[in-house]
Amino acid sequence: MMRRSAERGEGNLGCILWLLLFAIGALIAWKAVPVKVQSAELYDYMVELTKFAASSSPAQLKKQILAKAKELDLPLDPDDVEVQKTPDRIQLEASYTVPLEFPGYTYEWSFDHQVDRPIFIF
User: Fold this and answer.
1) In 3-state terms, the chain is what percent helix, strand and coil (to 5)?
2) 115: which of 17, 54, 73, 92 fits an S-S bond (Cβ 3.0–4.6 Å)?
3) Distance of CA 1 to CAs 4, 56, 99, 115, Å?
4) What does the alpha-carbon distance between residue 18 and residue 93 come to, in Å, rounded to a whole number?
């Protein structure tokens, strides 16, 4: 009976390619997941601010958002934060870009958080 040498299962190229793809995926996750978590924390904080915004001025809200962004190491400038408050609504907007540095490439990840809620006064 003849055996074919190509069917012996000694192909290492596939394993090397899968390991390379896994390493690239792990690098992307290592860089991107913390930024996404920080961004989600800032958005949740903005939503929390709108729940109790009836007694705060727009300048105070903007200052609180900027302080939280600084705490989270997010590159948020004062010009990138907008706070609009009317007697019955509060609108918060924060736009920023986080650079993710990879070997040979920098990805600019843009975030635009918008929160628009009614103000309830009891």
Assistant:
1) 50, 25, 20
2) 92
3) 10, 86, 61, 73
4) 42
Model pLDDT for residues 42-100, shown as the tens digit of each residue: 999 999 998 887 788 899 999 999 999 999 999 999 999 999 998 888 999 999 999 99
Q: Which residue stretches of 1-122 are H helix?
A: 13-51, 58-71
**Side-chain half-sphere exposure of 88, counting CA atoms within 13 A:** 0
Please tell me whether the overall predicted TM-score, pTM, comes out greater than 0.85 for this model.
no
Whether 7 maps to a domain, the answer reads: no
For residue 3, is it within any domain? no
Residue 1 covered by a domain: no
In a domain, 58, yes or no: yes
